[in-house]
Amino acid sequence: MTKEEKKEVLKATPFETFTEKNGNLKRYLNLALKNTREIMKVLLPKIAVEIQKMIEFHIEKTKGNVQTDKTKIINEKAIREHIYNLVGYVAKEEKNGAFETVVYRAINLAKMKVDTPDQIEIDEKNSKIFMVSKVATPFIKQKLEGQKGGEKKIPNNSNELVEINTGVIDTVAKIRSGKISKGSKTKDVKMIANNFKAISKAFFINFDKAITLANKKDVKFFDMVDEEVWQSLSNAFTLFNSNAYQDMRNFSEDYEVAIDGSTVIKKDKNKKIA
Fold first, then answer.
1. Residue 244 class from Cβ within 10 Å (0-12 exposed, 13-18 middle, 19+ buried)?
2. Are 91 and 84 in contact (CB under 8 A)?
3. Are 48 and 164 a contacting pair, CB within 8 Å?
């Protein structure tokens, strides 16, 4: 090795050194970049495991600098930029939302696995992610038959490892970073509650767009629809075909707001409009 080559090695970051010796991360990322259809389900756990190894390698090489949580000293932006550079991905030039999402979630999952290894299990062989139940779902909704409100949240104390979908990673990461608190509503949920008309209209427009893209076999479809979206659509389909949905529809047709603005009255369908 020449003096110049030795200098280059010395300049290399722990991330660069790790990925130079381990080609799995780059290989999985290249697959993810080209194949948006399966990245969430199949490749995310594999990518997360490789990022976990890279973080642990970085920690080992920078002992003495680490504070509190093992990954606190590590710059998430630096990890993301290094990953993008590995496959030559430039977000401004070739926007790929699905790829960016899988990278974002894989980084968060890897960091959580390093910080709390007993709370998370990644089965890369079968592409499954497991998390301690009370971490994945801090509160359990309990229905109260015959009571006003009809529902309350109780703390989840289960330490059982349960399989999760990839969307849970986002919620847990936000709770740990302090961006949202356990059991609180996110901004998105509040927006849905306050702007149901706008949300229902947006849902119809995007649902129609997704169907159009699917009919055209357009790759952009997979930027819109992933495993989490399918779960939401399946839940919506179940509701639309339920008696509860028909009851809601009947309620909207049979009742109206009373003159006091705070109660409802049955519509007088025989009343003639002047």
1. exposed
2. yes
3. no
Within 10 angstroms of residue 40's Cβ, the number of other Cβ atoms is 24
Beta strands in the chain (DSSP E): 120-123, 128-132, 139-143, 151-155, 161-163, 255-257, 264-266
Residue 110: name the closest of 57, 182, 188 by CA: 57
Q: Is 129 helix (H, G, I), strand (E, B) or coil?
A: strand
Exposure letters 170-190 (e unless 16+ CB within 10 A, then b)? ebbbebbeeebeeeeeeeeee
Please tell me the pTM assigned to this model. 0.58
Judge whether 76 and 92 are in contact, CB under 8 Å: no
Q: Pick from 131, 193, 141: which is nearest to 168 by CA?
A: 131
Residues 6+ apart with CB under 8 A from 102: 32, 39, 40, 43, 44, 47
Residues 110-163 pLDDT 10s: 999 999 999 999 998 898 999 999 999 888 888 777 666 667 778 889 999 999
